[in-house]
Design a protein that fits this description.
There is one protein chain. The protein contains 15 helices and 36 strands. The model is unreliable at 1-5 and 8-23 (pLDDT under 50). The protein has 3 domains: 2-245, Ribonuclease Z/Hydroxyacylglutathione hydrolase-like (Metallo-beta-lactamase, Chain A); 295-524, Ribonuclease Z/Hydroxyacylglutathione hydrolase-like (Metallo-beta-lactamase, Chain A, 4-Layer Sandwich); 532-633, Sandwich (Immunoglobulin-like), CATH 2.60.40.2310. Helix content is 24%, strand content 29%. Strands 1-2-3-4-5-6-7 form a 7-stranded mixed beta sheet. It is α+β, with helices and mostly antiparallel strands.
Length: 634
């Protein structure tokens, strides 16, 4: 009966407050509690002429507040409270995320180099400028304000150290839970959960939605508080928290179970993946692990020489063609082969993908062996200009003078026919090489895209699209069409292998099901927005600047939706910088990436180690502030 009375009270107050609403949709939830729903949510609790704010003031209507409660450190949320804190409001932040608030400049100064070879895989929505911290809170703390007591709970998951706040006001128990839930049983995205899982000995790069276990535990903690109303950092007010939480947990578990079932990591870390499953799924729920590849050979044919995570293709005349070169130890082994007489020279090198463990020493290899380097046209730019991107495992060493070949390009080399393919498996920028020997042997070098247990998609920041005809679905379609006697080589796996047609179809079915599961989980009109953080990005990500210089950047937007959208981008630049145009709209058709260009004028005096530019993106119902960033380095 209490819940029915509470909901009726809110409905009446919402109807009354519609006459008070502004463009940003201000709604009075109860006599002392108001919500401003704009790009994010802002909640104002007023007592005795004073104001307590949760999240911030996205509508910009408040001049002052007593206190601002921050649930987590995401800049696309915290931006709306900066002015209130600057004007004297006491800031309350999660104890485990204090550095993100108070040492933002230090982070960005270190990130000039740390962005290369990055295996931590945290989302990039780090605050650009520090926010003053007055108080830090953790699980079990109580905040007393006026005659209210606000309870603090640690609720990690969406971010590592998030908290939630609970307060009884006007006879209603409110919960302010940040981004751990969106609406009635949804989550804003999965990529923000990428993280290491120490108890399973899984690192950040391999930790697909690694904080799912923490998120589900946090949701259950929230449910145990018996809130009447949940107000997340964005999205609708949740008026039936118990049902919404139950739905979200089931959706998260279903999506994760699907992911685990065909994952490449099960081949490398079988026992560890059982631990991953137990952390997220119910005790009586089991993963339907896909059977390993139907054909697994003990070793490759003699004309292929494994060298760490590289492979050397040898011709009968002693010349060689190398696949990838990520370490000096690979070069040393190639030199040994030459000194032993088994290898006379290198005629070429093929790059499967840009990750630094496959590219770090290519320039040194070329210096010593004077061989041409091949890659697809789709991979050319990231290989030549890695600093222009913000992606995992970037190398510091761009590869100049690439031979960028079209998809399907064929080349005769010695007794082999080579076919170069764009192969967007493990990453969006990924290639493969089909080697067909005159005796009929066929080896398909697929980089890191598959193992005998399935697909290598355990890093969400790698941009694994789930559209039909893209990403792993594109790659699996290629495998379906190949002659049945091919073998796959992943250079981290000793054994060549081959899937049956039934196994290929099984993976396709699982990915199609995953897309349907994620469509229910995410609030976006197309689920790929929830797994692809870089659908909107600034290019180049990093560039050098000089005082008084004019520089150009582009905001690149990939429309994942099934219909065209008009996207509007505008920039947020450091103090003293200027830019034009003020904003830039662009209409983009489905499954197409377009860019809008901006010119930035650097001031005549610059003194910081790094300057950060962000872009806001608006389309459809979304108003995403400080969404993407780029760094400018004097």
């Amino acid at each position: 009966m209490k819940r029915r009375i509470v909901n009726l009270t809110i409905l009446v107050l919402v109807l009354i407050s519609t006459t008070e609403s502004h463009a940003e949709n201000v709604v009075r939830l109860s006599p002392h509690v108001t919500i401003c729903q704009n790009s994010t949510n802002g909640v104002f609790i007023k007592q005795n002429g004073r104001t307590l704010v949760i999240y911030g003031d996205p509508g910009g209507s408040l001049k002052k507040a007593d206190m601002v409660l921050f649930t987590h450190n995401r800049r696309d949320v915290t931006w709306s409270a900066r002015e209130l804190v600057d004007n004297g409001a006491e800031s309350v932040v999660p104890a485990k995320e204090v550095d993100s608030f108070s040492k933002a400049e230090k982070f960005w100064a270190s990130f000039i180099k740390a962005r290369f070879g990055d295996y931590h895989q945290q989302t990039t929505k780090i605050p650009i400028r520090s926010i003053k911290v007055n108080r830090k809170v953790r699980d079990g703390d109580t905040i007393n304000w006026q005659d209210l007591s606000v309870k603090v709970l640690d609720t990690p998951g969406y971010t590592r150290g998030a908290v939630s706040y609970f307060v009884n006001a006007d006879g209603i128990r409110y919960g302010f839970v940040g981004d751990i839930i969106f609406g009635d049983g949804q989550l804003f995205d999965l990529y923000s959960l990428q993280d290491a899982v120490p108890d399973a000995r899984i690192g950040g790069y391999h930790g697909y939605a690694g904080r799912l276990g923490e998120l589900i535990s946090s949701l259950r903690k929230v449910n145990n508080q018996n809130p009447d109303i949940l107000i997340p950092a964005r999205g609708p007010v949740i008026k039936n928290p118990k049902a919404a939480i139950e739905i979200l947990i089931k959706r998260l578990q279903a999506a994760y179970k699907n992911y685990l079932s065909i994952n490449a990591g099960h081949w490398y870390f079988k026992d560890r993946y059982e631990i991953l499953a137990k952390r997220v799924l119910e005790p009586d729920d089991k993963v339907d692990w896909a059977p390993y590849a139907e054909t697994i050979k003990k070793k490759p044919p003699d004309w292929i020489v494994p060298i760490h995570n590289s492979r050397l293709i040898l011709s009968k005349d002693g010349t060689g063609f190398l696949v990838d070169c990520g370490s000096r130890s690979i070069i040393q082994e190639v030199i040994k082969l030459r000194e032993s007489g088994r290898l006379s020279r290198l005629d070429g090198l093929f790059i499967t993908h840009y990750h630094n463990d496959h590219t770090n020493e290519i320039n040194e290899l070329v210096r010593q062996f004077k061989c041409p380097v091949y890659a697809s046209r789709q991979s050319k730019d990231i290989l030549e200009n890695p600093g222009a991107y913000r992606l995992p495992c970037l190398t510091l060493q761009g590869v100049p003078n690439l031979n960028a070949v079209p998809d399907g390009h064929k080349m005769r080399w010695k007794e082999y026919n080579l076919t170069f393919y764009y192969f967007p498996g493990q990453t969006l920028y990924h290639d493969a090489l089909l080697v067909e020997k005159d005796n009929g042997e066929r080896i398909f070098f697929i980089g890191d895209s598959f193992t005998p247990s399935g697909i290598d998609d355990y890093c969400l920041q790698n941009r694994n699209f789930l559209h039909k005809g893209m990403g792993f679905l594109y790659c699996l379609d290629m495998l379906k069409k190949m002659r049945p006697d091919y073998l796959l080589i992943n250079q981290h796996v000793v054994e060549p292998f081959r899937y049956s047609q039934e196994q290929v179809r099984h993976m396709i079915d699982k990915l199609n099901k995953r897309r349907r599961l994620l469509a229910k989980l995410f609030p976006w009109d197309e689920p790929n927005y929830g797994v692809d953080e870089k659908w909107a990005r600034i290019y180049p990500y990093g560039q050098k600047i000089k005082p008084g210089q004019n520089v150009e950047i582009s905001v690149k937007i990939f429309n994942h939706s099934n219909s065209s959208h008009t996207y509007t981008a505008n920039l947020n630049v450091p103090k003293g910088f200027r830019f034009k145009p003020e904003k830039a709209p662009v209409n983009i058709q489905p499954r197409v990436e377009k860019e809008v260009r901006f010119e930035i004028v650097v001031p005549n005096s610059i003194s910081e180690k790094v300057y950060v530019v962000t872009s806001d993106i608006k389309f459809d119902k979304w108003d995403l502030r400080h969404w993407s960033e780029a760094i400018m380095i004097p």
